[in-house]
Amino acid sequence: MKIIAGNSNRALAEEISKYLDVPLAKCQVRRFADQEIYIEIQENVRGEDVFVVQPTSYPANDHLMELLILIDALRRSSARRITAVVPYFGYARQDRKPGPRTPISAKLVANLITNAGADRVLTMDLHAGQIQGFFDIPTDNLYGAPVMTRDIKERFSSGNVMVVSPDVGGVVRARALAKRIEAPLAIVDKRRDKPGESEVMNIIGDVNGFDCILVDDIVDSGGTLCNAAEALLKSGAKSVTAYITHGVLSGGAVARISASKLKELVITDSIEPTAAINAAPNIRTLSVAPLLGEAINRIAQERSVSSLFF
Ligand code: R5P
Question: What are the structural domains, with CATH classification, of the chain?
Answer without folding.
Answer: 2-143+290-309 (3.40.50.2020), 145-287 (3.40.50.2020)
